[in-house]
Amino acid sequence: MIVVIGGGPAGFFAAITARTFRPETPVILLEKYNDVLRKVVISGGGRCNVTHDCHDPRELAKRYPRGGRELISGFHRFGPSDVANWFDDHHVPIKIEADGRMFPESDSSASIVEALLVSAQKIGVEVRKRCGVVGVQFNRDEGNFSVELDTGRNLECQQLLIATGGQTSGDGFGGLGMAADLGHGIQDPVPSLFTFKIQDSLLHDLAGVAVQEVAVKAVVPGLPKKGLLETGPLLVTHWGLSGPAVLRLSAWGARAMAEADYRFQLRIDWCPNLTHNDLGNLLTNWADDNGRKQVAQSPELGLPRRMWLALLQKFGIDRETKWAQFGKKNLARLVEKLKTTELEVTGKALNKEEFVTCGGVRLAEVDFKTMESRLVPGLFFAGEVLDIDGITGGFNFQSCWTTGFLAGKGMGE
Questions:
Q1: Domain residue limits, the chain
Q2: Over the chain, what is the mean pLDDT?
Q3: How far apart are CA 296 and CA 299, in angstroms?
Q4: Which numeric CATH code is attached to 2-190+352-412?
Q5: 166-222: per-residue pLDDT in tens?
Q6: 26-64 core/surface letters (b: 16 or more CB in 10 A; e: else)
Q7: CA 92 – CA 86 distance, rounded (Å)
C-alpha cells in the first residue's frame, strides 16, 4: 500500500502518478481538511497560474531562491511542456499570456481541480477527507510505516509520501513534524512571497495605484551591501507596497528579512529604463517645451498622475510651480529623487493567494531522482514541505507538479 499525506497539488499528482505506474497497488490520499486542492482553487485570483512558459531547465531553475539546482534534472524529466500536455490530455487546454504565465483557457481554477479529481477517481486513488495524521512510525526491521490517524486508527504501508505543503513554525505537528520524527533535519520555515508594510506619507490615499515598471532594491542587514534588486510592476496597498516586483524581492530575501524582523530600507527607481543622464535630458527638454505649464503636468514617465503628484509633495515641490521657473538645481534634485526614493519597511503582510514558505525538509537528505529519503527507505517527499520555493509566476506550482511526478514515479517503480 502507498499512503500520501496531503491533498494539495503535489500530493494529488504524486498519487495519480504512483497509481499509473502501479495500478495493482492501493493508493490512499489523506487530507485533514474537508476540502482538497484548496490552494489551487484560490491561486491566481481564481484562475490558477499552472506554470510558466520557460522550457530551459537551467533557466527555469533560476526562478527558485531555494531548490533550483536540485530541480534541474527533474525539470528535464517533467517540465512546463509536460504539465501543459498532461492537462491538455485531461481536457483542460492551457494558454500562455504575454508575461509568460500559463493558465487554463477556461480562466478558472475549477477546471484544474476537476481534472485532478476526475483523474484520481478514474485511476482508483482513494481520497479520504477530514482525515488528519497525528503520528508516523517506521519499522526498520519490517520496512513499513504505521500512520496514526486522528480517528484513533492506524494505516500500515510500505511507501509513504509527505506532501503537506509549506507551513510556519506555529502550524503544530504537520508534515515537518512527521519528517523530524522520522529523523530528517528541518530548515526553519519563514514566509516567502509577502508584501511590505510601509508607513510613509507618500503612500497615503494611493491604495490601488499601480506603476507598470519600477526597480526596487532592498537593503537588508545580512545581505550584500549592494542589496537585492528586482524590476517589474508595483502596487500600492492599504498597508504598503505589493505587486510582482515586491513579491519577487520578498522571495529572494525571505530569510534575511525575517532575521531583520522585516525592518529594512527600500529604494525605488521610478524610471528604471532611463539613466540619470537620460532622465535629466528628458526633464530638461520637457521644461523647455512646456515652460508655461505647472509641474503638476507630468512628463511622459509612465507614472499615474496621482503617484506623480504624491512624489512632488514628498520631494517638497510646489505643484503650482511653472516648469520654466524650476531651474537646473531643482531638475537635478528631482532626477536624483526619482531614481532613488527611500522608504522604510516596518513589517510584512502575507499574500494569501500565493502563500509560500522558505524552509522545510533539508534537500541534501532527499534523492531528487525519485524524491525518496536518503535516510528512511520507502519515505518520499514532494512539494513545499521541502526547502523549495519559487518566485511568483507559476513557478511554485511547477515544482509541485515536478516533484509530485518524480515521487509518484519513484513509488510506482
A1: 2-190+352-412, 195-349
A2: 95
A3: 9
A4: 3.50.50.60
A5: 875 555 579 999 999 999 999 999 999 999 999 999 999 999 999 999 999 999 988
A6: ebbbbbbeeebbebbeebbeebbbbbbbbeebeebbebb
A7: 9
